[in-house]
Write a structure and sequence with these properties.
Layout lengths: L10 E11 L9 E7 L22 E3 H13 L4 E5 L9 H10 L4 E5 L11 E4 L9 H6 L2 E6 L2 H12 L5 E6 L4 H13 L3 E3 L3 H5 L3
Parallel strand pairs: 2-4, 4-5, 5-6, 6-7, 7-8, 8-9
Antiparallel strand pairs: 1-2, 1-3
């Protein structure tokens, strides 16, 4: 189990904050404000944000500053806040969630691999489980969308096992970026399985953050 930052920590390591469009999952295409936290020990070889892995190289930002940035984004049209990373649940998110709710009314979306206990008070949980570090049962049972990245046939088997533990969620397959095998497998699987949906990284196709 990964150690989480203690409740009441005055700040968190932040890689970046930005206002853009959600590129993946059921909320793709919607205006969103992203808080990318530093630190990840899950170690996915295909990760496109490896610069976020070492938490110690990213500056600490106060919870109040992050919450005020959320409020500013809300005024600019953001529909929700996305807590992402890195792996955001490596940190205790209780205090950050409370600060955001104190300063703005935006829903809080959490993007996680599910390897740590759930903290904070997310309104939406996007769980992207990994074969090499499977998620906790708690996250499978609580997630709103289950989004499995597909590179090979073993990922499809993992997706089915994960989905069997998350009947309440919407199930999505997402081909690995620039992975022809993953794309072909995901398309064929979704076409034959009506419960599943295809998720694409539309922000990459559009060339936006």
């Amino acid at each position: 189990m990964s150690e989480q930052e203690p409740l009441g920590s005055s700040g968190l390591p932040v890689v970046e904050t930005f206002h853009s469009l959600q590129g993946e999952g059921l909320h793709a295409g919607r205006s969103a404000f992203f808080i990318r936290l530093g630190g990840c020990r899950v170690g996915c070889s295909w990760c496109d944000t490896k610069h976020s892995w070492p938490a110690e190289v990213h500056p600490q930002q106060t919870l109040e500053a992050l919450a005020l940035a959320c409020a500013e984004a809300a005024s600019a049209g953001a529909a929700f806040v996305v807590l992402t990373g890195g792996e955001p649940l490596h940190h205790n998110l209780d205090a950050l969630s409370a600060a955001i709710r104190q300063h703005c009314s935006l829903p809080i979306h959490l993007e996680t691999s599910g390897v740590d206990p759930l903290t904070g008070s997310p309104d939406w949980i996007s769980l992207s489980p990994k074969r090499h570090q499977p998620p906790r049962a708690e996250l499978l049972q609580r997630c709103d969308e289950l989004k499995v990245v597909v590179h090979d046939a073993a990922d499809l088997l993992f997706a089915e096992v994960s989905a069997s533990q998350a009947p309440q969620a919407t199930w999505l397959l997402q081909p690995g970026w620039d992975c022809r095998e993953g794309q072909a497998l995901a398309l064929e699987f979704v076409q034959a399985q009506p419960r599943w949906r295809l998720s694409l990284q539309s922000h990459k196709w559009l060339g936006v953050r």
